[in-house]
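Q: Hi! First time doing this. I have a protein sequence and I read that you can turn it into a structure. Is that right? Here it is:
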Amino acid sequence: MSNSMRDLIDGEAMLDDEEDDESFDEEGGESRKRTTEGGIDDSSEEEEDDEDEEEARRIREGFIVDEDEEEDEDGGSEGRDRRKKKGRRKREREEEELLDEEDLDLIGESIPQWERKPQTQQTKFKRLKRGHREEDRNESRGLDAIFSDEDDDAGEERAYGRSGHRAAADEFDDFIEEDYPEDDEERIQRQEDEEVARPKDRGLGVDTTGLDKDALDDMEAIFGNGEEYDWALQLEEEEEDREREEQNIELKDVFEPSQLKEKMLTDEDNAIRADDEAERFQLDRKPFKDLHMTPDQFREEARWITGLMWPKKQLPGDLHLPFNKAIIKVLEFFLGEGLEVPFVFQHRRDYLIHAKKVESQHNRDDPDGPEYAVDAEKLLTQDDLWRVLELDIKFRSLVEKRNTFEATFNRLKQEVSVQDDMVEDMVRQAATIEELQDLQDYLNFEYSTQLKDLAAMGNGASREVKRPGARTALFERIRKSSTYKFVRALGITPDRLAQNALREGGKVSSDDVAQLPLDLADSLVDGDFPTSDQVISAARQMYAEELFVSPRMRKHFRINYYQMGWVSCRRTEKGLRKIDESHPYYEVKYLVNQTIRDLAARPEIFLKMMKAEEEGLLEVQLTLENEREFRRSLYNEFASDNFSELADAWNAERQKVLDAAFNKLEKVITKGVKDSLRTACQEELLKICREEYFKRLDQAPLKPKGMVLGTTPRVLTLSNGMGDPNRDPICWTSVDEDGRVLEHGKFVNLARNEDQRDAFVELVKRRNPDAIGVAGFSADTHRLIKDIENLISEKGLMGPEYEDPDLGDYRSDLLEVIIVNDEVARLYQDSPRAVAEHPSLGSLTRYCIALARYLQNPMKEYAALGKDVASLLIHPYQRYLPQDKFYKVLETAMVDMVNLVGVDLNEAMTDSYTAHLLPYVAGLGPRKATLLVKGINANGGVVSSRDELVGDPERHKVPVLGPRVWNNAASFLYIEYEVTNPDSDPLDNTRIHPEDYDLARKVAADALGLDEEDVKAETDENGPGAIVRKLFREDEQEKVNELILEEYAEQLEREYQQRKRATLETIRAELQVPYEELRKNFGSLPTDQIFTMFTGETKDSLCEGMIVPVNVRVVKDDFAIVKLDCGIEGRIEAHEISHRHSLKDVLQTGQTVRAKVVDLNRKEFVCKLTMREEELRRPYRKNYDHDRGQWDYRLEDQDREELREKDKITGRTQRVIKHPLFKPFNSTQAEEYLGGQPAGEVVIRPSSKGNDHLAITWKVADGVYQHIDVLELQKENEFSVGRVLRVGSKYSYSDLDELIVDHVKAMAKKVDELMRHDKFRGESRSDLEKFLNVYIAANPNRSAYFFCVDTKHPGYFYLCFKSSPKSPVVSWSVRVIPHAYELLKSQYPDMRALCNGFKLRYQSEMLKMQQGGR
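A: Yes, that's right. Below is the predicted 3D structure, encoded as structure tokens:
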């Protein structure tokens, strides 16, 4: 067997040695080689290998058997009989299905293009099948049919292989499936085509031509019509049905649990769909679904939440009781009624407000005015409701842990007669998980023996009890020995000492025993502790441990650390060099003496500290501001008040005990405080992120002048992408108000090309957009915007007309050009969703479509992102947040906004973009939203009323939602009111909940002045909605403003105990303008955000004082024009270069030089720079503005000096290359810099291998970066760039630009080609292998291959394939090289050649294996 064949059978082919040339560990300076024992990397399990080897052996030995032969080996006589019957039926069917020559000729006459194929001789043996039987399939697939790509042609295939050799490999032809397996529609079409050539099993046909009815009746009377044998056929069909039922395969039998979980198809997901409870509630409370809280615990929870939220509310003190009542009511709504946050905020708002009557101030001036006015104070906001919900989950966790603890303690009391008043007191005071853990630690220490006894009793005598640890055993020995008397002689108990420190009760002082410590120890020696020193040492350890586990002492320490804690950072040896001044952690590298209050105001700072500590770059130290005073205070509470030599001796012992306990307590308390502080900072930062995201969602569709707020505009969007608008194409799309793409195309040079300018004008006049949107990825987009604005102004292109109240006439302004926030469009343009929606359009055109839709409805675009929304940059420090919590708060913001705006239910049924909003409706979620859509489709696909969702037997509508979920969602799902439809209720098109419809109808009737008889007559004739329809029909909505709603509210509260004041205001507003647009106007982007969007530069990455590389474009006598690497232009005046030389002597066009930014105009995308030597000698340093006591300047200066000394010793200097892509980064910084940039971007940087090397880092894919080592040859001096740049042993270049274009960009182009190929899957190798296994299990007669990224070896891809259900997944490595791909030492210029080459290589290996077996 050949080596490559062994690779095929055993697993993954080994990476070739060329990896040594380019991939290396930059930090370690060592090449990374992939080597395995024997050169083989096994990619399959051992048992799969065995199966594959067995198969190969059988093939070599000619062990190819017929299906019937295989069955004979397995079955007995019964099986043989069954097979005989089956074989007989098969032969009969084959005889019936044979077409004679005349039939074939007839087909040829009717279908001229059809040709009869010569019959091939059937092979003696059929290939052993690996999956379901295909008894009617006698031909094996050829390699072309198996591997062929749809876009391959025969000529190209011949270039990489010889078809004449394929016949010998017939036995292996069906190992690999077609590249493009037929879908269901193609399969059905193929079967219909085959109907022409071969009828199904219908028996022999009879030609009745020329026979009259009597003759046919006679023939049927003699021979019958076949129905008398139906009973036999029915029995056979029933037997086949039973066999199919026995072989019924469920989803979980085919798919991996992870895949079912991802698609929400697990049993748990189905249970969530079925349960009539809000989906988000079910998910949040899943860990506590078996927890049942008592009424006392419910009231305790309200007090607990009030205690946590009240200090931050800053409300008047007299509102504390109303605030607590509001918390109680909210909990009742959440827990008792199952109402979600949007429902409570919208329909129970009266319980979130404290209203009281006050005497009207204007009563004296207006005798007819109201005597009292209502003074309302908002107690809880919508943000507060989400906080209550979050705290409810935390309290449930607390209760669950406390219940567990109490159950253990009660067993100790009942079964072992333990009495501990301290535990009884502390357990009810425990308000945090930490305090409960303190009690648990105390219980485990103090009653370890009793707990082991309980465990033994509970587990039975036969169960072995674990041996206690050595430390626990030591304390048990002390407790049982006479040494414990020395412990008690130290004075008060640890708990009493803690009470003294906490000032609980009167102070109790320690009493001194009559003996000196040494004398007492001598009297207490025994077999366990035979010397006095051992007795004293053991006693100290015992008392220190009792102090350490004392819950009250831990509480005392925790309080002091929160109140007087200082947080400081200390860099590690690793962080000394790695955190340089350009590193993001430098901001905290020397930060010291930060109070808890300081960090609470800047939560991102502490999160950055903790992240740096996780990476081993910093140590975060928490100390007490007044530690010495704290220790002395604790000693005073413990020491004896006596004055004598005896007292001094015992106080000295007490001091030693305190010192030992202090160190242990400090360690455990500081860790807990740091963790709690991190959680608090995360919550604060999450709150900020939620607010920022809510602002982005809180934008109505763009509103040009004259349009009603909320109306969708027609939009024309343009973008130059990364190109130059004067040279490269400018993509554009025209999108109508329904979101449909009407037209798309490209312009070139709208600044000067008159034909293109005229085409733009013609397009605008033809499509008549309401606004024009522009965005892009480069600073040149700013020029495009100027060109379009100038073109609109010159040609007089006008926007929509609007009424001018000043002129009293209609007018129009110039068409508005909007710079669109493109954060969603960047994620959309190359997403699978975009490709599926617009497969024929280019990436930049899809980008323009997303821009247009963003202008039309930002909320829908954000909702369509799904979980990808977490990829958006909401806050600069969001990377320090847990991803699950971050996504959760973004989801809550979307839930709030979607329910504020509402969802047109029938539109959601026909428009996928609107359907993306359904999971965020109150009560729903992704699972229940899917159920809702399916249910509505089952009911006809259209909803005519909200009540219909819970079922309408009269109209044969089945329930779609349960009552509880429907109650949550009803008012947020609206149905457009149809005037012509008598069944349409106008209230279904409002924010009014169905529970308040009667109240709304009462308000409408009173506004119309109808009495009860009029109302009854109207409703009897036209139904319950008649009154509101009448109000709308007569256009009398304004009359509801004349009603005094306060009287309604008082009556409802007095007679029905319902608080509806805010609800009545909602009813009044909705009756006037149903579902009025409540979002803010579409916001224009601030200058800084536009600058960052076009250049990628923030205020931290580019600002005044920074030294940057610039490329000289134009040189004049008195100034020069340069371009920064971010794309903006700069100007250098002559006096800013040198007074001794002329400007042209110093600068030449195309040269790259270093310059310092003097002034940066972010609005105009220009800057002023200087090249004066004295300015360049002063490096940029960010000013952090720290107080002297909060920054360790001494250590900072000391570290700088130390690094300078190390550089002198090692000869390492900071190298600077005059090239736009050069950055003074290490590998980590380069990866961080490229992290937010598109794939293919490059950074040139210094190499750790010395000044004769450069390193190039380029982004292969998200999270995958290749570091290329470049050897410089023929250098003029140490700091110049070599004239020859060599990469590995094969590639040499003359300069950096040639290397970037012909090497890195060439590879990036190949990577992009591979990742856009149909056979590429953007998932890990393990996930791809799972997919292949599942795919082949579901399609046992097929085979498949795909590509995925090799994340461990940047620049490599895996080619994974599976030939049959029993074979393993095999992985071959594909290496990307400049202008080609390399597979098993062979190079292929493009993906088509690579795929064909793989197929032929596979065939070759199969042939070798077959010939070797012979």
